[in-house]
Amino acid sequence: MPLIPEEPQIHESVPGPRATPAAGRTASTPRPVPGPGPRPAPPRGAPASSVRPGKPGPAAPPRGPVAAPPAQRTNSPQPPADSPGTAAGAQLQLIPAPADGAVDAADEAVDLLLDSGRAPGEILVLTTGETHPWAAHEQSFGEASYWAQHDAADDVFYADAAAERATGRPVVVVAVNGGSGEVTARALPAAMARAGMLMIVCGDPQRINAVLGAPA
């Protein structure tokens, strides 16, 4: 069956226990904007956002837990249980967006996830086309520094969908922002394999369903 487009509203419909976010990026923190100058790789266990360039002032205080919505709430997106390609225990959501707006939609989804109580280190953002601006900026200082942030797992991490070194996280957000149909066809199943609880795909629903082989 085809994936059903969802409105980008994520009010803690994420399955599994919620954790109080670490002192990494939160929805109230400005979205990553590359700044000048290199920086050392953060030590394991230290908040990556505390040393990111271009971030004014000290790191924002950690968010407290967000109360779960009432049981009768119905406006949170709930993907069908039999979504094609869904791995056991993982849900799949589709947020409609044009290719040139898929990254913005993915950033908005990340903000909503953080608002819902997800810890930054639980989120992986992948792109099928042009590299996310934050990933491109971090890679400019060297692969070792870039992947050290991935291994620390204490903040949202941005990578190319084809990056085999990017390991799984509870939530994977995919921006289908370009690339051929073949690239997308490889990227989506690989991203689903990385998603422990939830995968959110931002892109053109018709194209995504065509790539997945679902009838329109």
What does this entry show, briefly?
This protein has helices at 102-115, 133-139, 143-152, 181-194, 205-212; strands spanning 91-96, 123-127, 157-160, 169-175, 195-203. By secondary structure, the chain is α/β, with parallel strands linked by helices.
Describe the overall structure:
This protein is of the alpha/beta class. It is built from 5 helices and 5 strands, in the order E-H-E-H-H-E-E-H-E-H. A 5-stranded parallel β-sheet has the order 1-5-4-2-3. Strand 4, helix 4 (181-194) and strand 5 (195-203) form a beta-alpha-beta unit. Helix 4 packs across helix 5 (205-212). The chain is globular. The N and C termini lie close together (8 Å). 38% of the residues are buried.
List the helices and strands and how they pair.
Layout lengths: L90 E6 L5 H14 L7 E5 L5 H7 L3 H10 L4 E4 L8 E7 L5 H14 E9 L1 H8 L4
Parallel strand pairs: 1-5, 2-3, 2-4, 4-5
Helix pairs in contact: 4-5
